[in-house]
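ok so for the tutorial part 2 we go from a plain amino acid sequence to predicted C-alpha cells. step 1 is just haveing the sequence, like this:
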Amino acid sequence: MNGIINVIKPMGMSSHQVVAYLRRVLKTRRIGHAGTLDPGAGGLLTICVGHAAKLMQFMVEYDKAYVAEMTLGLSTSTQDAAGTTESVNVDFQITPNELADALAAFRGEIEQIPPMASAVRVEGRRLYELSREGVTVERKPRRITIHKIHVNKVWNEYEDVLTFGSRVLLYIECSKGTYIRTLCHDVGAKLGIGAHLSFLSRVRSGPFDLNDGLTLEEITSRTSRGDLSFVLPMTRALPDWAQVKVNPLAEQRLRHGNPLLPEDFVDVPRQLQLDEYVFLLDVSGTVLAIGQIRRASGLVCQPIRVFMEG
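step 2 — the prediction. this is what the C-alpha cells look like for a chain of 310 residues:
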C-alpha cells in the first residue's frame, strides 16, 4: 500500500497516536505524517503510507490554513487553553478597529519565537521536555509568513467593544513552522490585554483541504470492507511536479539509481527546469521514483528516491 491518506484528527489525540492507530488498522509499519498537529487541535492531518513516506521531506514545506478561536483577557503558560493561567485582565475595552489594526501588524513576513511547549530542539532537547521539567530557555526567533488573517466572527457581551472573555474566530493562512497559539498570544500582547488560543482546527494543508479528509472511524469501516479507495495516489501530494514517463527499457537503470537521458523518456509533459523535482512513472502511470533535473538542455534526470522493489 503506497499513497496519501487525509485524516480529520480529533482533538485530544496526538499526531503520533493517529499514526499508531492507522498502523494497526492498515497492518503496515511504513507510515508517517506530514506536519504535526498538537493534541488539543483538530482538523486535517496528512498521512503518508508505504513509499509515500519518502515524500514527507517535500510535503513539510506546505503552507497551511487554520480556523482559530482567540480568547481575550487571559494568557496562559502554554499560550493555549491547556496551560495554567498566567495573567488575567478584566478591565479593558477595545474596538473592532483596534483589533483589526493589531491583526494587520502580523500580516506578511514576521519573526516568531517558538513556545516552550513545542517540539523545537535546543541543544538536543525538545522544548516541551524542558518545559515539563520547569525549565525555560532562550529561543531564537524564526521567520514565518502570515499570508492571510481575518476575523470570521466575534462573540462578545457588547456590540461596539470587546471586553474580557470576548472570543474572536480567525481564519489564517500561513507558512510552515507557524505557531497559531503564539500568534494569538502575541496579538494579545500587542493590544496590551493578553490572549490565548482557545480552539484550533487545520482546514487546509498544501493541496488538501477538509473535503479530502476522513475520520478514523470512516477509515476503519472502509478498511474492514476491503475498500482502500481513500488512499490517494502519491502524485496528488505534489501536484505541481511534472509526471515524466520512462521507457521500459530504462527501468533497470532507474532501479540502480543511474541518471536518465533523453532517449530514456517516452513522455515529458512540459519544459523542465534545472534542479526541479519530477515524478518518474512507468508507461502505465505507476510512480517508480523521484528525480531531479541536473541538466535541462539535454534533459538529464538523476533519480534521488527510487520506489521500485528488488
